[in-house]
Amino acid sequence: MQSKLAMAATLAAFAFVGSAVAAGDYGTPAEAKAMLEKAVVAVKGDKANALMMFTKGEGGFKDRDLYPYCGGPDGNFTAHPTLVGKSLKELKDKASKPLGEEVYAAAKDGAFSEVSYMWPRPGQTDPVAKVVYVSKVGDQVCAVGYYK
pLDDT for 36-76, tens place per residue? Predict the structure, then answer.
């Protein structure tokens, strides 16, 4: 009986360590919010350069699964690793939720809002819960998301 308990405790400890290591592979809510704050400052300082850096993941604007993306007044991505020029406003999540419309509706100057949706982690296909912090900066709607 004791050996079964010891084995269960050992397996639980390994599971905890494994989940802690895996959690380090992904950005946290605090890191996502901090990156959006940095992105807002960058857009205010030099919009064209900021959007280019976001798209290329330069200047500290790519950290594991965290990166900023922005959409312009026409509803199209102005910054994103792969979707520049495509419609952000018409984007739906993997459960057909109108993600893009919600991002635009939530974006307010000088404030950070949250939008939740279902999206696969990079390199995966099964959607999981994701939350983006959203803000409006001039004519740009910018966001940084993290996976729950």
Answer: 999 999 999 999 999 999 999 999 999 999 999 999 999 99
Structure tokens belonging to residue 133? 């912090």
What is the maximum span of the chain, computed from C-alpha positions, in angstroms? 67
Pick from 123, 145, 122, 120: which is nearest to 135 by CA? 145
| 25-147 carries CATH number 3.30.450.20 | yes
**Lowest-confidence segment of 12-16, 21-25, 66-70, 96-100 by average pLDDT:** 12-16
Partners of residue 129 on adjacent β-strands: 118
Extract the tokens encoding 35. 């990156």
Length of the chain equals: 148
Q: Is the pLDDT of residue 77 over 90?
A: yes
* Closest by Cα among 146, 113, 123 to 32: 146
Instruction: Give residue 94's pLDDT band: very low, low, confident or very high (50, 70, 90).
Output: confident
**Which tokens hold the place of 42?**
């960058």
Dihedrals phi, psi of 53, to nearest 5 degrees:
-65, -40
Domain boundaries, the chain: 25-147
